[in-house]
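Subject: Interface between my chains keeps coming out wrong

I've been trying for a while to get a sensible model of this assembly. When I model each chain on its own everything looks fine, but I need the whole thing in one frame so I can look at the contacts. Pasting all components below, labels as-is. Any help appreciated, I'm running out of ideas.
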Amino acid sequence: MDCSKARELNLDGLRGRLASGSAAELREHLSTCAPCRDHADAERVLSEVLDARLPQHAASLALKRRLAASWPTSSRAAPAPRRIWRPAWAGARAIAAAAGVALVVGGSTAFFVQQRSELSQLESETVNDHLRMLGGTPLAQVAGGLHEVKPWFGGKLDFAPAVRFAGNDDFLLQGGAVEPFLDRRAAVFVYKRRLHTASLFVVQADGLAFPTSLRAGIVRGFSVALWKAGGQGYALVSDLNLPELLDLQAKIASP
Amino acid sequence: MRQALAHADALYNFARWLARDPVEAEDLVQEAYMRALGAAPQFEPGSNLKAWLFRILRNAFIDRRRRSQREASSRYVEDVDADGEPIEPAISELQLDQIRALVAEDVSAAVHSLPEAFRTVILLDLEGMTEAEVANVLGCATGTVKSRLSRARAALRERLAAYRP
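Reply #2:
Try treating it as a single job with all components included. I did that and got this:
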């Protein structure tokens, strides 16, 4: 492998996207070529800096409401759970009706079916909503711990979030909130560990691709865990490292 | 319905980096969704919905720029691809340390300083799209994406390494 090829493959190599043969050839080249090794280091540092430092902008709730209001309902979609997404936009009903006809005539119900990326969409939504929480979403008072937070959700949600972990010395329960999560409302529990914040979003899992067994990984620099239990979907996210997040997840998922 | 709306945050983030203005970014996202509704019959079942939405949004952005005659985006793209193979000066360990120490504001400024075509390919790559998906968004060949991404990352590294707070 020459230097030009090695540099072309460095980024894919760092991301584990190379076939085993190419990966081995690249490793061999890097072991003997300092300039290409430096190039690989530079690629790695840039990826780390972009993942950790490049600001991500989340859409405002007002924009999401407008989009939802302009979007047609579908017989294949799950029932809209909350009125927060109801039209508030001038002319929205007429647009939605026209668009709905276009969709049906076009036979494009498959437009809504994209199972392959459903999990990554859940992960992406989890990170975006966490960023919004970090942006200053007010939290319910929790002087009395979980016993105060859970009743606070009463009347704000159409389900009772099944969360028993009231926090401990390692993970302090900071508060709760009700926030949009995709097309529905989520109970949000916020835990703190040192300077790190972890957000737990709990929703009714109907129609969403929450995995029945734990799925965890790094998404845009954040540690994310998704799982489903008892008909509820759980999305846990933080800038904690993954082992620490999984420690918290185990406490939350513990019966 | 949920599937398309689930991309609202990612689309807005992309729009913010393209337009550099929150109000215009919101307009772009709304326009993209309205265009998507109108073009829904042309969406091929099983193809990539996210890439399709991103492509619509980027086209909306380019149309606006052309209308306002502020920037000839298509010519811009040709320009960044016409410079041959990337020539990247070596970056020292000291410079890598400096890059590691930069804060979000510095990184943000460096990304904004890139040509739109470079900024776009970096942002789509950060979205986790494959080169084929980015090619789908940009309407170009996969090889072009690979080359452009390499050049864009080299240009960004250079700017970050040269940054002095």
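Reply #3:
Confirming on my end. Chain B is about 75% helix and 0% strand.
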